[in-house]
Amino acid sequence: MMSIINPGDKVAIFSPFYENYGADTILSGAEPIYIPLVPPDFNFDVNLLEEAFRSGAKALILCNPSNPCGKVFTRKELENIAELAIKYDAYVITDEVYEHIIYEPHKHVYMATLPGMRERTIICNSLSKTYSITGWRLGYVIAPPNIIDRVKKVHDFLTVGAAAPLMEAAVVGLNFPDAYYKELQDHYTHMKKLFVGGLANLGFQFTEPQGAYYVLMDVSEFGVKDDYKFAEWMTANVGVAAVPGSSFFHEDVHNLIRFHFAKEDATLNEALTRLETLKKKVNNAQNIDWR
Known about the structure:
This protein has 9 helices and 10 strands. By secondary structure, the chain is α/β, with parallel strands linked by helices.
């Protein structure tokens, strides 16, 4: 962000969004402009995106696949974004940490591969998800040389460098054969089918994730007005924890909660067993404060 953004600039962000994007924009001295991804399909209005660029957005932050909604942007959607970025001479900062966690028939397309976008795309990626090393905090940036020169200067003052043994180990991962990524996709597909399929069997409403390992469940059937309090109540009374969906939205959305299904089968099955009691416990609940 600091390599291309000056104080007073504007940055477009799709909402819902991973919570760091808004904070990073503000810490860079810029003003966020939020573009809604509209549930349940999480499509966006191209006119609103163009309005953001027209009003001075110097960059767009694009998480693909998306956390928290699991959306995988189509090639057509990416082409629409690219057309506007070129038209308004703006950058696209991509967060592609879930690039290999994709569910058929969806395909991940790299923004930088589209015509005219290599020179105006900054790819931010992480080794955390692909290699299951979230605690190592290792990642990388791919960008044109003039941008990378600035990134290195900012990085040197903020992070300096990661631990050398961890970087050596990361190189081993980066050299894994293609078969590893197929196994990874199969592994996450299994977990998705188990948990999301279980939610469907229990009659809950949710958005089918196309990528990443999160699912947004709609709790409006329970009359939820305050998703934070509902999530706290569910944790205490049902024994399953979820993140309030409103923490990811700039818009006034309070009917969604986010589950994380990158867990062992036994954990997911236990969660589904407990969620089976949710409707009954809601009906029997007294003095609830989330309606």
